[in-house]
Amino acid sequence: MLTGKQKRFLRSEAHHLNPIFQVGKGGVNEHMVKSIEEALEVRELIKVSVLNNCLEDKENIARQLADETDAELVQVIGKIIVLYKQSRENKTIELPV
């Protein structure tokens, strides 16, 4: 689990990032989860946008993505979800203690 200080740090790190995945009316599927897991391994911190035509609640999508990818849900703001998962191979983000 992330501390409040770590979440604040990750939010500031994610501020300049662009969303690299979009959840549309099809919702979350297995292929998307696999792609997000791979992106998290490379980048550690990613943004996912929820499109207007998505029928599911963005909070539920955020929780589902975090659970299925074993990532930490950093933030849901507007229609943007920020996820973090420490990389096994490419650790680049140093979290504050």
UniProtKB/TrEMBL annotation:
Cite a single GO MF annotation: RNA binding
Highest taxon listed in the record's lineage: Bacteria
Keyword Glycoprotein recorded: no
Listed Pfam families: CRS1_YhbY
Q: Which keywords does this Swiss-Prot/TrEMBL entry list?
A: RNA-binding
Does Disulfide bond count among this protein's keywords? no
Q: Which Gene3D superfamilies does its entry note?
A: YhbY-like (3.30.110.60)
- Residues of the CRM domain: 1-96
Q: Which InterPro entries match?
A: RNA-binding_CRM, RNA-binding_domain, RNA-binding_YhbY, YhbY-like_sf
PANTHER family, per the entry: RNA-BINDING PROTEIN YHBY (PTHR40065)
Question: What is the protein named?
Answer: Ribosome assembly RNA-binding protein YhbY
Q: Which organism is it from?
A: Paenibacillus thalictri
Its gene name is yhbY
